[in-house]
């Protein structure tokens, strides 16, 4: 009986861990993603997510995904989420040389 109980606890722990990881998603690399108050472009933008942000998936509706981040809920377009972490080897492109002065043209791209 004791072995059966221990086996059940181990199995439940494994299922809980896999279910938790299945609910994670990341915003796509190179995309700043609008966070909306509801599932559609007709809802207000209430924030944005930087590229490669890890979020918790709560639900889906009409091509939109409800996510939880820092104890708040947001809706994002499902097509800009991925189920794996981003590669952190990204290097932003260098600014073009304008031919004089500081070596940079115009304002900041960041």
From TrEMBL:
The record, for SMART domains, names: SH3b
Q: What is this protein called?
A: Bacterial SH3 domain protein
Tell me the keywords, alphabetical order. Answer: Signal
Q: Where is the composition biased (Gly residues)?
A: 99-110
Does Signal count among this protein's keywords?
Answer: yes
> Per the record's keyword annotation, is Signal included, yes or no?
yes
Which residue ranges does the record annotate as region Disordered?
A: 90-110
Q: Where is the SH3b domain?
A: 19-85
Give the signal peptide range.
Answer: 1-19
């Amino acid at each position: 009986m004791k072995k059966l109980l221990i086996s059940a606890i181990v199995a439940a722990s494994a299922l809980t861990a896999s279910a938790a990881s299945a609910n994670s998603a990341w915003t796509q690399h190179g995309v700043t993603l609008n966070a909306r108050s509801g599932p559609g472009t007709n809802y207000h933008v209430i924030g944005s997510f930087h590229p490669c942000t890890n979020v918790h998936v709560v639900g889906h509706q009409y091509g939109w995904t409800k996510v939880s981040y820092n104890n708040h809920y947001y809706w994002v377009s499902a097509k800009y989420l991925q189920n794996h972490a981003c590669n952190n080897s990204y290097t932003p492109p260098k600014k073009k040389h304008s031919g004089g002065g500081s070596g940079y043209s115009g304002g900041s791209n960041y």
